Structures are given as structure tokens and as C-alpha cells.
Description:
- The chain is α+β, with helices and mostly antiparallel strands.
- The protein folds into 2 domains: 2-88, no CATH class; 96-162, Winged helix-like DNA-binding domain superfamily/Winged helix DNA-binding domain (Arc Repressor Mutant, subunit A, Orthogonal Bundle).
- The chain is built from 7 helices and 6 strands, in the order βαββαβββααααα.
- It has helices at residues 13-21, 37-50, 96-103, 107-117, 122-129, 133-147, 152-159, and strands at 2-3, 25-28, 31-34, 55-61, 64-74, 81-88.
- The strands form 2 sheets. Strands 1-6-5-4 form a 4-stranded antiparallel beta sheet.
- A hairpin with a 2-residue loop joins β4 and β5.
- α4 crosses α6 and α5 (122-129) crosses α6.
- The longest helix has 15 residues, at 133-147.
- The two termini are 29 Å apart.
- The mean pLDDT is 84.
Amino acid sequence: MVGEDSEIHWKNGLAGSIIEGSTVFEQESKYLKFTNDYNANEFSLLINSCGTQNKTMIVSNDGSSPILLRAKELASDADRYFSIEFVKTDGFHLKYDEIAEVFNVTPTECTILTKLVGGKTVDDIADIHGQSVETIRSHVRHAYAKLKVNSREALFHKLQPFIY
């Protein structure tokens, strides 16, 4: 459980071990910190937008399996507190045949979507494939249009039935 300022008010053993064993989180004094600004900003957006509905973000864990963070605002009097669930994954794989049939995406678009769902950024994907960031963004725009989504959160929601 964290406060609006990321102060950790309570954590169980599993959350503690994920924080300690991760390259993206650290506990500084009694605060949950991120090792890069991008994840810190995304977490701040997650906290500020979640309300009483679960919101999810994926954090890439430097080469190992991504970590899902599910946040939900807890009922409170004046201060805002959030339940944060840390979920270790074994990575994500998408069922290309089904996605191609339903959304008409190309193999390249599916590969890029898999990496996005797995927590990679457009810059990461460009480096991995040796392509320009603009080329990858173009593939992402085409895939988003085919899936009729306009955000990563909507993408994750739309692809959830196809993840194994």
C-alpha cells in the first residue's frame, strides 16, 4: 500500500522481494522509487488516473520478464492510498494467427505489438530490429488503427484474450 507521494505504508514479502530483486525499483527510505524517469512518470500517471478501478502498467525489467503493476485507490478519508499489486510474468506471447484473423495485422505488426505488450518502448524495438524509431512508430500507428485503440492501456485490454 502506497500513498499518493509513493510512500510505502505496508508491503508483503512478495512485493518486498520483487522490489529488492528488480533493476527498475528501489526502496529509498520509506518510498518506492524507480531507477528511470520514464517509469517514474508512468507510475505517477497510473496513480493519478486509477480511482477505484484497477489500472495496469507494465515495467520492463532489463532483459528479464516484465512486471505488471496493478493499482487501485483504496477508500480513505482525506489522504489517498493505493493498493499496488506486483505481478511477475514469464513474458508475453501473442497468438498471431488469431490476431491476424480478427484484426488483419501483419507479422511485423504482431511482432512489434508483442514487444509493446512485453514492456518494450518504441526506442527499444527500433534498436532490437535495427530500424528507425519513425519506422517502428509507423507500424505501431497502423496496428493501433487496425485494433481501433489509441493508448497502450487500450491495446493491453484489447489483446488480453490473445495473450498466453
